[in-house]
Amino acid sequence: MASAEGLHAARSRGRNTRQLVHEVLRSRIVGLELAPGSAVSENELAAELGVSRTPVRESLILLADEGLVDIYPQMGTFVSRIRERDVASAQFIREALERAALRDAVGRVGARDVAELRVLLAAQEEADRQSDMEGFFQLDEEFHARLMAVSGHASAWPVVGQAKAQLDRARRLSLPMTQQMSLLIGQHREVVDLLEAGDGDRADESLRSHLRLVFSDVEKIRAKHPELFSDEDAPSRPRRDSARRAGGGHRVTPDGSAH
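Above: the chain's sequence. Below: its structure in token form.
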């Protein structure tokens, strides 16, 4: 839910405003609607979302704790640039949980589970044919969540989702640049085939290779768009003359360019 309309509808159902604003802003950052390095205006966001500045400010503090924004007193708030250390940490958490879950899935996966996974694979192939990268990204999320559910650890998927926000920004950048949806779908299919065959060792190795593909992708993205990344553990202070407001542009477009 990244729209103001969705926020208002959820508020009418009694949901917490700060939580909803946090979800909207987090979705925009992870989805690259707000690109790394772009400025965020509390006033503009509050006006756009139809809320006071308080929930926006509180949400930005939460996002700073997640490493998704950097707040500079007397200067402003900026979407954090991607730090490879953060991507590596997120990948470590994701890989540990997903591979552990996959090992538990071997021996307990049923025909219905395999059929549901193959339905997702077919939908991914259709997204590839339609060059629907956003649709594929959502189907990819559903596929990995379903793998966790097959193992009996569906409740662990939100933990993975919370941990991998930095990783998801890199993944979303990689799809339009690498044009490798077919490769990813093939890797998904291999995991399902090996899981169905009960070959846990090979399924684990296949999943490991699949999840680590993001590291080579990050190298390619950084070579083309170094301005979206930061080498430093602490964020570098942006220049005033380079700041752009959240409502004013700096978005990563489908071809992988930043505007």
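Residues 240-250 have pLDDT under 50 and may be disordered.
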